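A reminder before we start the practical. When you read a complex entry, don't treat the lines as separate problems. The point of joint prediction is that each chain is placed relative to the others, so the output describes one connected object in space. Small molecules and nucleic acid strands, if listed, are placed in the same frame. In the example below there are two entries. Take a minute to note the order of the lines before looking further.
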Amino acid sequence: MLQAHSFLWNYLWVAPNLLVFALGILLWKRGFSRILPLFLAFAILTPIGDLATFLADVIPSVTPETFWRLFWVELLLESMLKFLVIGEVFSRVFSPYPSIGRLGKVLVSGFGAVLVFVAAAMAGFAKGDSVIHIIATAHLLEQTVFIIESGLIIFLFVFAAYFHLSWDRLSFGILFGLGISSCEHLATWAIIANTSPSEHVRTLFAFLNMAAYHAAVLIWFYYLLVPGKAPKKSTIRLPETNLAVWNREVERLLHQ
Amino acid sequence: MTLAIFLVVFAVITLFVILRVTVSRSLRHRNANLPGIEPLDVEAFRNLVNPLENEYLHRRLSSAEFRRVQRERLRAAAAYVRVAGRNATVLVAIGQAALAAGDDKTAEAARQLVDNALLLRRNTSFALLRINLAIAWPSLGSSAAPVVLGYERLNGCAMLLGRLQNPAVPVRISSAS
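Here is the predicted structure of the whole assembly.
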């Protein structure tokens, strides 16, 4: 069962892509193209690339070299779209707050630059897992992309948590799914790219990667399609006792 | 191998942070109780961060004594700044809840409150950094004055929101006229 090209393998490769494509179409029909245009582009374009790679894998006439070239193109396209989606979420979370929006932009740009530098250095120090150049560099590129992606995601979560910002359901769901998937992918690609594991272990990691992406897709379905609970009216009020304390301080100021 | 271990540890920490934020978000949705606003003596706080007071102490005290006194004053200022930061966090939550539930006027007051509270939270972070540096080098100065200004502005916003949300409760800003 846990072998390449088994039923489970094919299911885990194809099903999440079909699901995310269906999610993209559903969201587009519901008018989300104005709210989340970049996530929509990600949801529609990424499965096309991933399914093309799957077909290249199963069609016997496709040479390994062609497969890996396609894999590279698909990886670059998917990575670019994911970074755009993270940017979109960042903008949705921080643009309503001008007082920290600018600080957030400066910090995320600086942190992003540091991540690119660190990821490039780590790729430079990695020994590579294959003698075939195109395969080894593809795995290193995966590691590089997931270092930057996980770093940006953790930055957004920590920055928003520090300021106690409330996330809207859509932004949170997208970043939560992306975060879970990217952490798992980073761990597996770091092991694959740096330790040259056996074929069996690689296959197990491939299963794990596909399962994590499947979980991320289900998370997106839940957060994007299931409506959240409506906020209770006036759940939190300024407590009178606290206002009295505040008033006392202001009075003290006025009497100085 | 070391690189792989380092990256796996980083991935696990990232996953832990994400799950922790998710759990705390879900708990916050279920439980709307917030910690109260801690009282803060704004005038004492203002005195502590007043550069004129610093200059006066510098003139009157010997260098060694000034450094000792200044460190004590900076530690006290840091405690005030922390309280201001915590109060700002509570007001962010109050403002955000009012944003979702209120009418236009209340929503506008809530937006202003949230924005000012976030600005104050940001300033308290920078001020704490400066204060900690100043504790190491007392001649640097703390630059915590924006925190006092922000806190005073926040007072106004909080009271306006309180009045809009609960007009029945008289909100006094002065006991004498």
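Discuss with your neighbour: Chain A is about 80% helix and 0% strand. What might explain this?
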